[in-house]
């Protein structure tokens, strides 16, 4: 498994657990949907997902160095690189291309 995939998996796990236990997709959507409009914008998605990166960045320099990455090795990744990866993932999950994620799109397997 590539370092990027390991990091994405760790970030997803970290984000989900760090933001409290979420029992179902509807609850997950409600937690991410900070403006309460019933859908998740790219900005809301990025804010939610970047939480794990920020927790892993122990020295706060905006870069996950090898020792901060899962497994303690791999190529460093910047906060901006991770943000771009998350934005790309958002657009892949946005099946109907309306610029938002619905509960159905959030619960769908990664594309």
H/I helix tally:
5
What's the helix-strand series?
HHEHEEHEH
Helix share of residues?
40-55%
The biggest beta sheet reads: 2 strands, antiparallel
**What is the distance, rounded to the nearest whole angstrom, between the alpha carbons of the first and last residues?**
17 Å
Extended strand count: 4
Explained architecture:
The protein has five helices and four strands, in the order H-H-E-H-E-E-H-E-H. The protein has helices spanning about 5-20, 25-30, 40-55, 80-95, 105; strands spanning about 40, 65, 75-80, 100. A two-stranded antiparallel sheet has the order 1-4. It has a two-stranded antiparallel sheet with strand order 2-3. The protein starts with a helix and ends with a helix. About 20% of the residues are buried.
What would you say about this model in short?
The protein has 111 residues and is mainly alpha-helical.
Task: Write a concise keyword list for the protein shown above.
single chain; mainly alpha; two-stranded antiparallel ribbon; elongated
Topology of this protein?
Layout: H1 3-18, H2 25-32, E1 40-41, H3 42-56, E2 63-64, E3 77-78, H4 79-93, E4 100-101, H5 103-107
Helix pairs in contact: 1-3, 3-4
């Amino acid at each position: 498994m590539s370092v990027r995939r390991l990091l994405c998996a760790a970030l997803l796990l970290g984000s989900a657990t760090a933001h409290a236990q979420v029992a179902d997709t509807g609850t997950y959507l409600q937690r991410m949907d900070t403006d309460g409009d019933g859908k998740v914008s790219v900005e809301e998605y990025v804010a939610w997902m970047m939480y794990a990166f920020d927790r892993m960045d122990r020295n706060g320099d905006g870069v996950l160095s090898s020792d901060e990455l899962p497994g303690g090795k791999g190529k460093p990744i910047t906060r901006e690189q991770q943000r771009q990866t998350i934005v790309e993932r958002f657009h892949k999950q946005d099946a109907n291309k309306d610029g938002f994620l619905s509960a159905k799109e959030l619960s769908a397997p990664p594309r």
